[in-house]
Amino acid sequence: MSTRRARIADTGIVSLAAMRIGIGALAWARPDLAARLFGLQSPDGQARYLWRLFGVRDVLVGLGTVSGKGTRRHVWACVGLACDVADGAAGALSRNDVPRAGAAAMVGVPAAAVAFGAWALNRP
């Protein structure tokens, strides 16, 4: 693979991590806004707690990816990919419990991250 393609893949991994950090920080700081962006109702106290659990995980995985180099970045990106697969599966399992727009976001957002992350991780 060309150096240019490898740079594009690495830039994509970093960009995906940056989005993960942004979404995670929003989910931790403003779970009500994060829920609305995902097409869900304003969360109650228990749901705000769960949004913050998701948020801190995404921030830390994103920071690990951005700050890592070489093999370490690859490992953190693989952790992020595994989280995205699990998030998509959780969304699919919960799709009948939320409004249609929320279900689409809960499945579609992680599916897009999985597709792009898998492509980028398969580049040397």
Plain-language structure description:
The N and C termini lie close together (7 Å). The chain has one domain. It is globular. Helix 1 runs antiparallel to helix 5. The model has no long low-confidence stretch (mean pLDDT 93). It is built from five helices and no strands. With 124 residues, it is an all-alpha fold. InterPro entries: DUF4267 (IPR025363). Keywords: Membrane, Transmembrane, Transmembrane helix. It comes from Mycolicibacterium arseniciresistens.
Mean of residue pLDDT values: 93
- Helix-strand makeup class: mainly alpha
Strand content: under 5%
Uncertain spans, ≥5 residues at pLDDT below 50? none
Proportion of residues in helical segments? over 70%
Shape verdict = globular
Can you tell me the number of structural domains?
Answer: 1
How would you characterize the largest beta sheet? none
DSSP summary: helix tally: 5
Radius of gyration using CA atoms only: 15 Å
Distance between the termini: 7 Å
Transmembrane segments: 12-29, 101-121
Protein name: DUF4267 domain-containing protein
Organism: Mycolicibacterium arseniciresistens
InterPro entries: DUF4267 (IPR025363)
Spell out the key features of this protein.
5 helices; 124 residues; mainly alpha; globular
Short description:
The mean pLDDT is 93. The protein is an all-alpha fold and 124 residues long.
